[in-house]
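Anyone? Bumping this.
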Amino acid sequence: MSQEYILEMKNIVKQFPGVLALDDVDLTVKPGEIMAVIGENGAGKSTMMKIISGAFTADSGQVVLDGKVIPNSMKPKDRLDIGVATIYQELNYLNDMSIAENLFLGRTQTKGFLKIVDYKKMKNESEKLLKSFNMDYNPMTLMSDLSVAEKQMIEILRAVSKDVKVLIMDEPTSALNEVETRRLFEFINDLKAKGVSVIYISHKLEEVFELADRVQVMRDGKNVGVRNISDTNTNELVTLMVGREIEEMYPKEEYQIGETILKVRKLNCSIARNISFDLRRGEILGLFGLIGSGRTETVEGIIGIREIESGQIILEGKEIQIKNPIEAKEYGIGYIPSDRKQDGLVLVNTVKNNLTITVIDEVSKAGIIQSKIELERCDTWIEKLGVKTSSRNTEVISLSGGNQQKVVIAKWLLTSPKVLIMNDPTRGIDVGAKVEIYKVMEALCKQGISIIMVSSELPETIGITDRMIIFSDGYIVGELNRSDYKQSDILHMCCGR
Amino acid sequence: MDRKVLKMNENPNFKQKLGNMGNTLSLIIALIVLCIVWAIMTPYFLTPKNLMNVLMFAGAMAIRSSGLTVAMIMGGLDLSQNATGALTAIICALVSLAGAPAWLVILLIFGCGIILGSINAALVTFAKIPAFITTLATMQIFRGIAWLISPKTIMLSDQNLIAIGRGRLGNGDWAFPYLAIVAIVILGLTYFILNYTSFGRKVYMVGGNKQASYLSGINSRKVTFIAFVYSGLMGAIAGSLLSYQVGAALPQASMGTEMVPIAAVILGGVSLAGGKGKISGTILAVIILQVITNGLQLQGIAQYVQWVVTGCVLLLAVFIDVIRSGALKKL
């Protein structure tokens, strides 16, 4: 019996602590089709793929392969055997072994009673496999001699060599250059010609238009639309990805922006080159650019965790030298790092201790903590930011992402900062919590605190900032006021140069 | 946030309290069971005289363990405490024999402890050598220097010093050893530091996440440095007190028992990864280990059997840490 779909996901729901990652999601893949799945960071694309591959278990819903339901409990290894293979962003290979050995990883061919490795057989079969995809390599070549793209193709070959029906690829071109990407696309088309179905996850629209037959758009854990590539266009997909509720998402209010408080002049720091900008009182300034464009390096230079080669930082008219975060704190500059679990919080400690960590010397007399003062300040901020926690003595590890982020923000508000630098402040938290964080940011600006927000999410940067500086390749390539924001112009600037 | 919710939580209910003290509770139960077993096997065990002896011998271990508790909560480790103690005792014995008064010798103990602790601290903080390697090396270096200074046992003559090591407060069976008093004072001090001072709070935060603490404007280097100095200082005090108990300073003093305080601290609930632990757990664990040793001695069981038992307890302690961290469920 021939099925219309080789793979089907039906009503998949997946809940993580504090986040509904997938909300009743469907997905269909036809045999021999390239199905693209697109969406912003956190839309649920990767979670979906991990449910197919077996890395995650869905809370409810079914995955059907070739008419048969895959049991939830089936391990990733066994799913490989029934024909579901996944190529993750991080590759999985043994660098110091040959192509042949990598192709046969986990099922090394042996001969005889002593189970001696049958190199000859492995070599011959590898050669056959490589040839069938027009790849002209000696199977005894070491993986370490190959480029990233070639390694990736070998990894795909390994999956394909096991009679794969559905191949899942999670942003496979993120580490590839233009030429390598071409090469990979040809390869994927070869696979398609051989009848393999491919689920291609990406957030690069041009790739999708070039490669895919159909495309499914994900937003906030929901499937917001499936289109045939021939029936759609970039505008429609972008609208679907971003959604229409921008007005509600970003609670922007009108208020007076004050005088210049911080000036950065000709800053050179790591890959950031010749960076100059001003920050005004009560303003949200966005530093936008792709990863590796120098925006993070710039702020890390300002707060003293990255060495500055040259340049000036002028706070309220006085030039200052900041060598570490301790000094930055003294000058009234707070930093909210992008990885809140690694860099922002002491996860195994309590909400209270994480909140007052920045002011622990302030609330102490002669080295002894004045617990009355500490508790009062701690409770004030739990209340002000609406941190949802069962008590102040709860370990922060058990809070949701949004509430954890509020703790990180609150610990800096305790220091009454003049400037708050936020690196990707809404990373990995769900939409509701994002809106709450934006509201907090707005409220702070009204009180005269200035915010520098580093982000790689354009809708967010457009929605919440008063002014935007665009980074590309370590340089500032543009500056726009809120009234002049235009998505296409900004993307042009940060990808251009 | 609802104010009432916070107020309610200011006094956690009995069940919560019981949950919070889960580890402490199991230690108390273990200690009680152990005491009952020994009491049945040897009537002498529960006599005041023996119990005071247990306290006296637990004293030095308790002092070392309180230093180690601070270092390990901060995410460090110190193997060199015993060698620090031996070297300090040798130096102080020589100075004492040269005619220095007891108060000067005591000052010198502090000086030696702080200097030797600072060597560890500097190597870990500034040279960034892992604490395990650093203190493994300094353990051998300090021990070697102690032998170099005096390969022979140095007999002490200052009766004031010997009194601190051997003397007891009061008379009769319940006479309380001075050494135990010193240990109680130090444990109390450590409890105070960890729970009520800003330094203690920073020890927990740096141990829990060094990078996050640093980015929050905590001088994590300073915290690391002081924690190692504190551990070294406790090693020096414990080693000196032991030499006053024996009445002599030996270069090989406490050799081979370097792991016992570490076993005690882990058994007491300090996470090997740092960031968690309580001094109350350490106190109970020290007493448990000392009661085990004492009971075996009373049974007349040879010392090497005691090593086997101590080793097993160490394994058990680390295994408990593994279970607690949830690592068993992982790869």
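Late reply, but here is one note on the structure posted above: Residues 104 and 339 of chain A are 37 Å apart (CA to CA).
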